[in-house]
Amino acid sequence: MIVVILMKPYPVPLFKLFVPYLGDDLQSFQHIHPAYKGNGRFEVQVYFPYSSNYTLFSDYKVAGKAEQVSVLKAPVPGQSPAKPKIDLATTKTFDNTQVNLKLSKSEIQAGQEVHLIFNLQDAATKKPPTDLKPYLGERGHLVILKQSSTLTQADYIHAHAMKNTPNHEVHFITRFPKPGKYKMWGQFNRNGKIITADFWVTVI
């Protein structure tokens, strides 16, 4: 499916535009980059893996302005798969990378700042990877969504990686606005291969 995103033409260039999209059940997550066609028009090829109500978050920043988010809904009819049980494990393996999620607090409270640390190890050697590269100009990106019956802009959080952290760790600081279950997708670049690490957390 081709998705067209129409935006107001700006006299200054867009600094960035990326579009995370996912099913409202939070099972499917994709991070795509539309191609600019001119006059405020972006196009991107989108693949929906199964029937669900999908939400696309157009996350963009115009030079000299604050980051903005727009929401597009894309219902895909049919029988949706059963929802898997929420996995609150803090250590998981994704392809060739083992990721350990560390939190600055034993409990995450709504509205309070929290420090999230993604500790990366090579899955085979159990040693810190030596091939981490910048991803979109940063050490990593983090998208967070609150579990909701219908996703809205208020459920969406995008955090940027901190600078000057240990080579095998990617750090983020953010706030969770409301109590509930949240799913996080951290993305990191290992020598050109993007690792997507997903974790659930509970906010009280």
Structural category? mainly beta
CATH superfamily of the largest domain: Macroglobulin (MG2) domain
Strand runs, count: 16
CATH class of the largest domain: Mainly Beta
Q: What string, H for helix and E for strand, traces the elements in order? A: EEEEEEEEEEEEEEEE
* Helical stretch tally: 0
Query: What is the helix fraction of residues, given as a range?
Result: under 10%
Q: Give the N-to-C terminal Cα separation.
A: 39 Å
Give the mean pLDDT: 87
CATH topology of the largest domain: Immunoglobulin-like
- Low-pLDDT sequence parts: 1-7, 9-15
- So what's the oligomer here? single chain
Largest sheet: 5 strands, antiparallel
β-sheet strand percentage: over 45%
Output the radius of gyration. Answer: 17 Å
Key structural traits:
single chain; 204 residues; mainly beta; Immunoglobulin-like; five-stranded antiparallel beta sheet; 16 strands
